[in-house]
Amino acid sequence: MNKIYNIILVDDEDEVRGRIASKISENTDFKIIGSAGNGYDAIELLEENDVDVVMTDIQMPFINGIELTRIIRRDYPRVKVVFITGYDEFNYAKEAISLRVNNYMMKPITSIEINSFLNKLKQELDDEYKQMQDVLLMKEKYDALIPVIGDSYLTSLMQLNQLNLNDIEKLVLYGINVDKHSQFITCLVEINSENSETLKENEQLKINTSEIFKKVFQEADFKHSLLVADGLVLIFSFENISKNKIDELLNELNHSTTEFLNVSLKIGVSKIYNDFRDFPGSYRYAKRAVECSCLYDFGNIVFYEELYDSDLKQSFLNIDDYSTFSQSLQYGNDEEIENLISDLKKRFNSNQQVFIRDYVIIDLASLLLNLSEQAKTSINEIVGLNLIEELSKFDNYNEMLDLVYEILLKIKIQDNRKQLSHSENITKKAIDYITQNYDDADLSLEKLSSQINVSISHLSMLFKKNSGVTFSKYLINVRITKAKELLDNTQLKIVDISEKVGYNDVYYFSHSFKKVTGVSPREYRNYEAIQER
Q: Which residues 6+ apart lie within 8 Å of 140 measured at CB?
């Protein structure tokens, strides 16, 4: 195998790094891609490059080889570490063993010694690389995960307006062969799980209901069940099946779950659709049907198309209204929501068809239930009373929509409070802590993770993802920014400023300052003083 592996050399003496580099043969399949004079610079090289091996001294300024290796083991566990040191001490050797260091070489090292080790390391890296590239192993794992990946992907598509051909191709790749059929129905099944005491029991009920569905619908040309937060999504296909037959099978499913699982179902049934790209809309139709069943007593099985009188406009709201309001609630301002309500008022005034009042109330209640669910808040807590009763108090549609607008604003306030995701909240806590404690010379990722009760690796990943930089870079930038303020506005000595921004070592402070600003602290102060004259 001719893969070339990347090395970085870390030693505080340029001459030593040069001697080590000169002893590495070109025939070893290793390439030196960078060198650093201290641990901080080494971390930066690791962040910016694909590194396979770090060859480092132990005794170095700022971060020594032991601490550097701890960071590598935490953040870059695949990277191999080699100690090259002039210190023959048992404690170092013991640390090296505990940190799983790959070799421990004493200076001065010979060409034979280093190349012999690299040849052995090459074989170890080749074996690891081959294992990672083992097609059969990866395929076996992939095949086992295909159903899970497929269901996860299909779940993610439910929030779209419509699928595209690429989505269909991916579903087929994951074993959900929707391209071979031309007629589909989607059902949302809510399970009355009052008897289940735990989340695990509730999930098991979903799985058991799914198995009964497969048995009852065994004659279907296509069938697929999907476990979701709402309950269970059933998708099936019959060519030219009658509505009565669908009703018969769903009733059998409901009776079977009652008999064998001791649970009752609420089933919302979408319209029949002839292109699976319309699946997201069909799911929303099924969801609307279930919600209407919960708002009014329409029985256990509700067909969306039966909710409205066919001689009148089927629905006051359409599926697009749901996504429009959802987007405005998440990303828009109060004025945008007010404009949407104004558009609905115009729909009443300009439409030539008559809307049935009860169906309008159902539509508006369904919209508010959806949006409160999206904001993870209780609509009853926001309204204070029964939603249907509150909407029913108004004979005038404009007044009814004014109430809807007020409720939407309350939902938006709740949504804004919960808008920050879990990861963003963690990052905000971390940044707040850094802002208040940047002067702590012992501030580290480990200490920070302990303060906000998050694992080191998780915090490291979230911090970089949400802030755009690593913890160490962010901390250095905060400290240097504070140092510049002190240099600008005080006559403190540079050594005192160093301590005030968290550096015990004034030389390392100067090193960091120059790396960030391009000039030393003294040069910065002198330049600013000249500019003020």
A: none
Query: The tokens of 169 are what?
Result: 């191709």
pLDDT in tens, 330-348: 677 888 888 888 888 887 7
State whether 97 and 144 are in the same domain.
no
Per-residue pLDDT tens over the stretch 54-71: 999 888 877 888 888 888
Output the domain CATH number for residue 164: 3.30.70.270
Q: Is pLDDT above 50 for 521?
A: yes
pLDDT level of residue 88 (50, 70, 90 thresholds): low
pLDDT value of residue 193: 65
Which residue range(s) make up the domain with 23?
5-132
What is the greatest pairwise CA distance in the chain?
94
Contact 190, 233 (CB under 8 A): no
Summarised one tens digit per residue, pLDDT across range 122-133 is 888 888 777 766
Instruction: Give, for 520, the enclosing helix (H) or strand (E).
Output: none
Q: pTM of the full predicted structure? A: 0.44
Helices 90-98 and 65-75 pack at an angle, to 10 degrees, of 10
Same domain, yes or no, for 146 and 112?
Answer: no
Count up the domains in the chain and report the number: 4
Structure tokens at 350: 């300009």
Query: With left for phi above 0 and alpha for psi between -120 and 50, is residue 177 left, alpha or beta?
Result: beta
Q: From CA 338, how far away is CA 164, in angstroms rounded? A: 32
Q: Which residue type occupies 83?
A: F
Whether residues 148 and 293 fall in one domain: yes
* Domain endpoint, select from 71, 104, 132: 132
Q: End of a domain among 417, 432, 464?
A: 417
136-149 residue pLDDT tens? 566 667 677 788 88
Q: Are residues 287 and 146 in the same domain?
A: yes
In a domain, 19, yes or no: yes
Residue 252 corresponds to which amino acid?
Answer: E
SS3 199: helix
